[in-house]
Amino acid sequence: MEFDIDKLDRSAPFTVPEGFFDTTKRDIEQSIARERKRTRRMHLIRWSMGAAAALAVAVTASIALHNTQPAVPAHGLNELLASNGQQVATAESIATPQGSKEITQATQPVENLESYLTDDELDECIAINDVDEFLHCQELLETL
Amino acid sequence: MNLFTRHKNTPAVTFEQVLDKFQQPLYWHIRRMVLSHEDAQDILQDTFINIYKGLSSLKDEAALKGWVYRIATNECLRHLQRRRETALSTIGDNESLTRELMESAHVDYGKEMEVKFQQALLTLSDNQRMVFNLRYYDELPYQEISAITGSTVESLKVTYHNAKEKVTKYMINN
Fold this sequence. Notes:
By secondary structure, chain A is an all-alpha fold. Chain A has helices at residues 20-68, 74-83, 91-95, 100-111, 113-116, 119-131, 137-143. In chain B, helix 3 crosses helix 7 (142-149).
């Protein structure tokens, strides 16, 4: 049997609803408008999530940084104690035997105490000193 | 806002021009592949959304036709693949498409020879059918089909020849 497909009418049996191609353009336009809206919303969501993540990182880093810092810096502590007439023990000062000069400096605040106290306060200190058993234990031992 | 102003910088081609020029050829190309009017309508919309998204990156106007056909073809093949994956295992490869062809409200069953010819085409693989349709119905030169499918001209000639043989055999036997 002779059959040549090139001799056939090259049309398909398919049909479309009336006015289909007139409305296609409008339908596609609407689809694209929806797609653009969706894409814009996705961009907004992504941007918001990015901003939130950046903020969270910044807050976390700030908290972490705050926690790793000392409450009072070392040099700040020295200055604070120095202003109160005290000295900070350092590794060197512990290792090296202290000279008389340093001892004098250390007792100086006690000597200066008299100038800060009133007469009544001094009398009270002397009274406490007189009855203090630990301060006078040597004298007690001698009397025994 | 005009939807088509975004691509005004693309030399000599706007989305509106692409839509006007290709909506019908692409619809028929898709329809011949998926057979169902409703599916073809959905795929056509997806195709134009993809065209819209990618048009600004297309600089060579000469490549436009191959490019839009490639997008449509890929959408069709994806659709057929999905359809096959979701179909029951008892249904043969093109059985559901044959049913689609024989039970559609948008097929002119008065054209018996053409309907029979479509049945013959359903004996081909998706790839063979695509090449056959592009050559036989759209009358595209092999060079253009090559740009769409990514196959060589020689391999396309062989594919078309084999498809033609198979369809002829089906038509003689039925």
